[in-house]
Every structure is written in structure tokens, then in C-alpha cells.
Amino acid sequence: MRMRIGIPKGLLFPDFGGLFESFFLELGQDIAVSPDTNRRILDLGVGCCVDEACLPVKVFHGHVCWLRDNGDCDMIVIPRFMHLRENESICPKFCGLPEMVKYSVPGLPPIIGVPIDWSSAQGLRAWARAVASYLGCAKSDAYSALHAAVSKHNEVAQGYTVLSEPNRQSSRRDGLDGQSRATELAAPSRLSELTGSRKLENLTVSSNREFRIALLGHPYNVQDAFLNMNVAQKLARLGAAIVTDASVSETDVNREVASLFKKPFWTLARYSYGAAKHLYRTDAVDGIVYVSSFACGIDSVVVELIRDATDGLPLLVLKVDEHTGEAGIDTRLEAFTDLLRRRKTFGSNIPAYGKYISRGESAI
Amino acid sequence: MFVQKGYSLGIDVGSVSTNLVLVDDSGNLHYKLYLRTGGRPIEALIEGLGQLSENLLPGDRITAVGTTGSGRRLAGAMVNADVVKNEITAHAAAASAVAPDVKTIIEIGGQDSKIIFLQEGVPCDFAMNTVCAAGTGSFIDRQAARLGIPIAEFGSYALRSDSPVRIAGRCAVFAESDMIHKQQTGHSVEDIIAGLCEALVRNYLNNLAKGKRILEPVLFQGGVAANVGIAAAFERLLGVSLIIPKYFDVMGAYGAALLAHEAVVANGGTSKFAGLDCIKQDFSARSIDCNGCANMCEVVCIYSGNKKLASWGDRCGKHGKQ
Known about the structure:
The complex is a heterodimer of chains A (364) and B (322). Chain A is an alpha/beta fold. Chain A has two domains: 4-156, 3-Layer(aba) Sandwich (Rossmann fold); 192-345, Rossmann fold (3-Layer(aba) Sandwich), CATH 3.40.50.2300. Helices cover 42% and strands 12% of the residues of chain A. Chain A is built from 14 helices and ten strands. Chain A has helices at residues 13-26, 39-48, 55-70, 97-102, 121-135, 139-156, 192-195, 201-204, 219-223, 231-237, 250-257, 267-281, 297-309, 327-345, and strands spanning 4-7, 30-33, 75-77, 80-83, 111-112, 115-117, 211-217, 240-243, 287-293, 315-320. Chain B folds into three domains: 5-93 and 252-280, Nucleotidyltransferase, domain 5, CATH 3.30.420.40; 100-244, ATPase, nucleotide binding domain (Nucleotidyltransferase, domain 5); 283-312, no CATH class. The mean pLDDT of chain B is 84. In chain B, the strands form three sheets. Chain B has a five-stranded mixed beta sheet with strand order 3-2-1-4-5.
């Protein structure tokens, strides 16, 4: 029986949504994807989600509500991501997401909440098998659908790629060699290609930019232009070229995190930290803007680690929450770019306190 | 005999106060005006410009205009400003004009508080309070009103205290209930107010200055710098002495004037200023809920009579096009 599967465009969708889409299509099902986050979706999510959750989780709830109301779905996928890399974790909210949504959003069709272990091809096959049996499809169909979806995903993915060989290593950013690509400002965002969602790289191609800013944070905060109040575009308008963590290769990230006092636990934080440190050490950016959702426990640690590792590099932490007034964000971004501009005018590479730089007359 | 004098006009439309200053080409402040915004920025600015024009001599000219503060775009549209600048850049410019070797600026205004670090006169880092307003002027305003003490005397109460009580400063709501507990158990108003000043300073330092080195000279500016209790608490907790500039309450406007002067000179010397007669226009702000897409942006349009001067608030930018 052909069913219509709803896929919410929230949280890690930019990374994996494309794979889900092709998987279900290959399996002979129909799909419905919610639109890019907008005000209505945010309101729907805030209205039903538990109050303590972070903004991206609320937004995800909103996408599910939208699919319930408009998607005409027989089932909705709420991905239960367990691991993205071996022996690492992501925020525990991902493991409990299906339950969280189920008990907060009334009137839902059946949910596909099968656990996904992205860290091995084996884990992915187990997911496909379980989904197929839930849908009443044959195991062999599931495998071939998965195979096709994964090949397609890897063709276009800038993000998490899946190795068809079960060599236990999920390598991200396929096709990048060990060299830093941060100096190429047209760094493609690792997420957008799959989905045709907003493309950050369009903002970064102009060669004639005054300064380069690393835009870091959990991908769902960085990539969702509604949730982060369009920070990428705002920065571009203020004269910045934008680099995301996708421009730093896996090898470089590995090298940077190796010097941490213990092995990093959180996969997404690992990339933010590794990218920040690498971009700082290779002098590839003039500043960092970190988008953090209010009350994110992981961010509270990562921001401090980044601050420590990038001594003297201007760092702006933007907290996003439900408020829709953009004035606060505008003020901070404007002040931050002013600061970078002044630093450039009065001498680049100012170390932390201690050394003097040459200076014109008065600073004003 | 009148000598023709050119002044840069700085306008800071904040949540609590609207400030105007006139600054000459050498950076000297000639006139300052501090008005309460009272929730009506358009009226406050018109009132301010009216008072300002009465104080101008016949030969005086305004050669540059800059606006800052949370109402900077509104004010910028009304007077057609040369420069519309954020508060951080404006405060930093003002502070380094007053004290060229300043290293740290503590600025506490009505609804936001900030800390700015400078190296050799160049801002190198800043932090601003997040969504919460617990460490800002409006919180003190509210507590003063609750205790029935005029805001101008609030700080001096704190100075009369021998043993400040411990007040939770993390959240304005908790602080208020904490204060009520303390007051009901018999602590003196002076001790409670001193405790509140310390709580506010602690909150400020925890939120904004965490892990940062506060190097001297430290300037304390913004409306809250008038509060001697807060200043004393800062000095006690930081172990440094604060410099409170003479015009601490209008530093944002002063910085906007300096930046406007700089910009006009850089652009060849002609200001875009609409003239002081602009206050005779019938300004109005109208907000519309745009229904063009699901974002439903709240768009604000500023009109003079029926003519739209500016608009903002839309994500796509289509309303901004004239």
C-alpha cells in the first residue's frame, strides 16, 4: 500500500532529510515535507512543546504540527538519532524525540521513531530493516532503497557521508582532502545542497569582502534562517564573508580536538570546536559568531572551550530564543562588524592585552 | 556679533531616556539635554529638538547628525541622520574621546547593559546582556518605585548601610521576592538597597564580564552611573576605582555626534540633516502585519504626513524599498 510519509524540516533535516526523502520514494511511498521554518511553524511549536526545551526542538514540534494539519500524512518520521559518530553522542533530546513529540502534539498519525545509528553502515541497515517491517515492505526492498538513497546522498552530501563498506568509520565531508579549505571563501555549507534549503554559500562568494567571519553553532541553529533571524544574510550585508565548519576537513578537526584534555563527547560540538580552533590557528577568519539556543547545555561548554582556544579572536555569542524582535541581534552584529572594521583599520592581528599596535591620531 | 558656529548633533533615543547633545568640531560638548522617553520616542525627540532650537544662537548651524540607541532608526528617519550607529560603537567612541587610554567601559542603561574592552582606543571585545533585564536601570527604577524612594536618592541609601543583606540577583523576579522576605524579617531599607546594588553588580559581572580581565582605567557611564550605590558596589567588588565621565548620562549621544562628524568630514562635508524645522512635520509610526508570506513580519513604517520616510522589520526587505 502506498502511504504518504511526512518528513519534518527541523533539527538535523538539512543533513539527513534528503536521504529520508529518497529512501521513502525508492520504497514506493509518497512523501510530504514541511516548508522552511516560518512564524506560523514557530508559533505552532511553542504552543505545544514543553516549555523547557530549546528553540530548535520547539521549532521541530512546529514542523510536526504543520504536517499534521497540512501534510495529509499517513505516518510521520521523527528520527531517533542515537549516534552520528562511533563512541560519541549528540544531545539526548534526539534519543527521546519521538516520545517528546508524541506526548506533546495531539492528533498525530502513527510515528516512525525507529532508532538510527549513523556511525556504521550496519546501524543504518538495521534502521532500514525496521522501517520496512513497520511499513510492511520486504527486507530486500528496504536494502535496495537504502542503497540507492545512500548513493544519492553521498553524491551531493557535503555533510555526513555514509561509507558503503562497513569499515566502521563514518567519514564526513567526503571528497575533501586533509587541507584546510577555509581560505576558499566560497565554502559550501555542508547542509544546504541536499535540500535546496537556503544556501549560505551564495552569501560568501563575493571576493571583495571586508572581513571573514566563522559562523558556528549547532547546524540547526546556523542553517535555519528563520530561527537565527537571518544572521548569515545580515552579516553578508554588513560586509562579511562567511565560513562554516563545513569548510574545515575532518582531518583538521581531528587534529584540533586531539589536543583537548579529554576526548570530546558531543559530535556536533566537536565540529564547532575543531573548526573554530583550526580557523583561528590558520588565521583564516577575523572573528567568530556563535549561534546558540537559549538554555543549551552543550553550547555552554563549547563556547567556553572555543573562547579558550581562540585567545584574542573576537567572539560574539548570539542567543536565540522565542523573541522575534530583531533589534537586539542587529545591534550586536552591527557593533561586532564595526569592531572588526576598526581592528582592521588600526592594525590586524591584535593579540590579547599586552602588546601595542600602531595607531593613527585619535580613535574617534 | 555672532560667529558662525557649526555643531554636530548627537541623538540617543533609549528605552528610558532621549538625549541630545551639541558638539563642536573639536569634540567639546556645548549643550546637553536629558529627557525621559516615556514610551513615546517620536514625541520625546520632537520635544528635545524644540528645546534645542530655542537654545541655538542665530548663527549656529548643525553640520552633522548622528543617532544611536534602541530608537536610532526611528530618530534617523525623522531627522535624516548622517550616521545611524549602534550603542556599543557610539559609547566606545565617546569614552575614548573623554579618556583616550580607557581600557574598560561599563555601561548600564535602561534596558540593556554592556561591557566594552578597548586596546589603544580600539574596541576589541564587548558583551551585552541577553534577554534578561535583571542587571539594568529599569530594574532599579522598579524597585525604587516599590519602596517609594525617589530614584535620585536610591544610591545614597545604599551608602548609609553597614551590612548589606544578600539578595539573589540572578533574576529580577527572584530578587524582588528575596527583598520582600528580607524586609519582612526586619532588615533596614538601607541594608536591603545596598544588598540590591551588590546583587545587580554581581549579576552584571557574572553575565558580562565572566572570565575577562577588567583593566584600568574603567569608565562607568549610562544613566545608572548616577547611582552612587551601584558605583560603590562596583568599586568594592572589582577592587578598582571607576571614572565617571562628566557627561556620563549622554555618552551615547556624544559618541553619535562624534561619529557623525567623522562621517560627514569623510564624505566631503555636507550633512543630510533635514533641519530643525523637521519637527513641524506630522510624524507618525504605523505598524502593519505583512501577510505576504507565512513569516507575518511586523513592519513599522514612519510617515511624515502621508509620505513614508522609512520602514523596517520585514525579513525579505520588500517594504524597505520606496
